Amino acid sequence: MQIDRFGLEVKTADDAAIAAFEAATQAVAAHKPGAGDAIGVALRAAPDFAAAHALAGFANVMLARSETMSAARANLANARLGLARVGGSTDEASLVAALERAARGGLAAAADILDDRLKARPEAFLLAKLAHALRFMTGDTMGMMTSVDGTLAALPTDHPGHGFLLGCRAFALEEMGAYDAAEQLGRQAVDIEPEDSWAIHAVGHVYEMTGRAADGLAWIEARRPTWSNCNNFALHMSWHAALLNLELGRVSHALALFDEEVWPRSSDDFRDMSNAVALLARVEQFGVDVGARWAGPAAIAQARVKDATLTFAALHNLVALVSAGRLDSARDLVETLAASGGVDDEQEDVRAYVGRPLARAILGLADGGASRVDFEHLLRELPRVGGSNAQRDVFVRLLARLASERRDGQALETVLATRRRLKRDDSFVALARARFLASERRASPVSLVTEAPRLIA
Q: What span, in angstroms and rounded, lies between the C-alpha atoms of 243 and 247?
């Protein structure tokens, strides 16, 4: 057995394979490109390297499409074969066991397996980073915090993953609304590990949620040399910059970022889609015509109407279809969400509790359906779709719009009060109330442009 630089115990004795695997782990930690290439190098040097096969599998799980889940199951088969042929460490066996659950849709169950192993070997950094990512995908803020706290408490400060895990903890603190602590720890993480774009991102979230748009934009732009070299996480950081520009009334800047950095080309990655959809939806809420920009995301969503692998992704696809006026396809996607999942598919619970009713509400904005909407239930269960509070805000905003269009002032105030628990009131709140007053007067929504001229800059 050998222990790699990041503390993972592995069976292979091939130095070249271990060095390549360490490079893949570094890329995963820093959200840099090259993890896939490094895994390929490791497997060419050691074809039965179980941990490398498992990491490839987790990369496919996190793409969360039907075909990538099939690829993850193929990676799982190779990892099992590696264990059977040459054996493996307990760390590797835990990775493979976790992948087995994740590849069947059990993301939280997979994270539990990784966390159990971390109790015995907290120095196995890769397990902690993967568990954090899986819990983020399931919206498990408390799980993110508990997992990283347990690992950090037992991890030496000179461990190469220490700074990255501080960034994970900063993000968990931010999602819990502990903004001062999150900002302080996020800055500390960046000082310790300058390549930690996740920590940069965590501090950016703090600025957005506390209404400090100018300071947030300055923070993100000052660190552009770091995050612009990331994988598609760079597109997400540009999304944050666009949101902050939008809040500052710089709509033209936000749309320029959309064209050049957020959606520079079509992408079937659900993370890129969520960036594009959420930004365009926000811009339109301020009465701005986004032109033909919905066409690209809607085309991607059109090809995904039969894919509900991840509820978070499917709901963003639905918003794209509704916004582009492709209502027949939107109805097809709602029907897909209504279908039952597999026996080990945790997303079936997510679809049942929040995905289906929220999908019907979103579709109802366009076709007048969704006669009954339980706003309190949707708001309470919304974190289960995964992602961050900032990402889920697109759905909160749509619920506010639905309440306004139904002239339901109580529902609107419920939505805004729920939002206020985590995010300081921003320009959207004034706009939502203006929209409600416009609906009360039976006024055209176009009049909202004159209600909020500061936003149309």
A: 6
